Amino acid sequence: MDVFKNKQDIPLPDLKTCNISLPEEQYLFDFTKSDNVENWQEQSDTVRDVGMSKAVFVLHQNTAYRRAIFFALLNPQLNGAGFAGVRAIKTYNLTGHTKLQIQCRGQGQYNGFKMVLRHKGLNDEPNYSFEQYFQGPKDEFAVRNLPFSEFKAYYRGKRVNNNETLDISQITSIGIQMYGGVYQPIKQKGPATLEIDWIRAV
After folding, report:
1. What mean pLDDT is predicted for residues 149-174?
2. Which residues of 143-154 are buried (b: 16+ CB within 10 A; e: fewer)?
3. What global pTM score does this model have?
4. Which is it for strands 158-159 and 152-155: parallel, antiparallel or unpaired?
5. Record's family (predicted)?
6. Which of the chain's ends, N or C, has fewer CB atoms near its CB within 10 Å?
7. Radius of gyration of the chain, Cα coordinates, nearest whole angstrom
8. What does the DSSP 8-state code read for residue 150?
9. 11-25 residues labelled b (16+ CB within 10 A) or e (exposed)
10. How far apart are CA 71 and CA 142, in angstroms?
11. What band does 24 get if pLDDT is binned at 50, 70 and 90?
């Protein structure tokens, strides 16, 4: 009988012969290939009477590249309340994945954005959304990682205290917003852009 004196002597299994399958990358949107922006709709603070912000989502391409660009003009109230965003109503089952990744580049004075997810068809108020803040990388394109465990419940920009977690098996809306920061230490205003190559689950 073989005796292993230490951990280094223990043979490792051949992963090629094991029946272990890891979830593949699941692209929600790949704007570098065939995905378009027609199904994205604006969702900015103009849904309320005091709102004055604007967001546009367009496809930008030439013979060398293809990507989407999120343009935002944020005109918040004095307390920072305001948002400019877009969203796509589409159903995804992301079971087996642990995070979203977005390959992007931000330009402008402010580069604070947030990813907004909704589940179970609860896509509008008074239902709350699940959100995660991120900084758009400047100068060069980079990947931002957004773990599903870090998406927290919000209602009109304010954190909701409850025990419900995001159901990634029933994602029914995905959105991107530039936020004014009414409940954040940093306030934002003015124009900003976020260039996006793709959004995927891994």
Report:
1. 94
2. ebebebeebbbb
3. 0.85
4. antiparallel
5. Belongs to the CIA30 family.
6. N
7. 20
8. G
9. eeeeeeeeeeeeeee
10. 18
11. confident
